[in-house]
């Protein structure tokens, strides 16, 4: 099942960016209980989200954040068809509700997307083929996924809510200034003076008697 995404227009200047607490208490708990939600934006379902390359998500190129419900199985596949891989990063994080004296209401797991290096190089060569120096190369991204689930103390369910987002890879910048300064400092001042005198085109002055 491919991902679909629907939402109602939000007021100008506002974006759908729920906190971990809101994702657990409102969106995920209500979804698991089958309750109606009145929010303007409600994530859609995508049960094979871990096997889809982020570039295939709807709105790629204009969106930076995606939210999907997923019914996760015990043997959840975390690779795409091209053998890209979502790997866990760090430890699980508790989502606590401060209004309930820090009660545990959710569990957050984080993943990072690892590209197949061979395919990534082929795709980069393909995308850059035929581009002139003036044409801009396609941007590169680092992809991450946060998965929110409910603890058994709240509800026994296999529903999870996934938040996928990207960060643009900044191009490497090489500072050549120190090498230039060092090169200039190593030159012989006398050679520079000789060159300046030769540039006048005048013959050298006669030797004094």
Automatic annotation (TrEMBL):
InterPro entries: NAC-dom
Residues of the NAC domain: 10-167
Pfam families: NAM
Region span, Disordered: 116-137, 182-209
GO terms of biological process kind: regulation of DNA-templated transcription
Molecular functions per Gene Ontology: DNA binding
Biased composition (Acidic residues): 116-125, 183-200
PANTHER family registered for this protein in UniProt: NAC TRANSCRIPTION FACTOR 56
Name the UniProt record assigns to this protein: NAC domain
UniProt source species: Arabidopsis suecica (Swedish thale-cress)
Lineage of the organism: Eukaryota, Viridiplantae, Streptophyta, Embryophyta, Tracheophyta
């Amino acid at each position: 099942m491919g991902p679909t995404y629907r939402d109602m227009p939000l007021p100008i200047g506002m974006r759908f960016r729920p906190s971990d607490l809101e994702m657990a208490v409102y969106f995920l708990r209500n979804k698991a209980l089958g309750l109606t939600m009145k929010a303007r934006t409600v994530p859609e379902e995508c049960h094979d989200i871990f096997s889809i390359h982020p570039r295939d998500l709807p709105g790629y190129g204009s969106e930076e954040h995606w939210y999907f419900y997923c019914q996760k199985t015990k043997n959840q596949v975390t690779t795409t068809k091209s053998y890209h891989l979502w790997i866990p990063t760090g430890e699980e994080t508790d989502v606590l509700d401060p209004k309930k004296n820090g009660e545990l209401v959710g569990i957050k797991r984080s993943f990072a997307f690892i590209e197949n290096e061979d395919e990534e190089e082929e795709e980069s060569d393909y995308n850059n083929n035929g581009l002139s120096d003036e044409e801009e190369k396609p941007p590169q991204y680092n992809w991450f996924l946060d998965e929110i689930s409910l603890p058994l103390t709240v509800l026994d369910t296999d529903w999870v809510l996934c938040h996928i987002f990207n960060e643009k890879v900044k191009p490497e910048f090489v500072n050549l200034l120190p090498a230039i300064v060092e090169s200039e400092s190593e030159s012989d001042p006398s050679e520079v003076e000789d060159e300046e005198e030769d540039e006048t085109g005048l013959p050298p002055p006669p030797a004094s008697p």
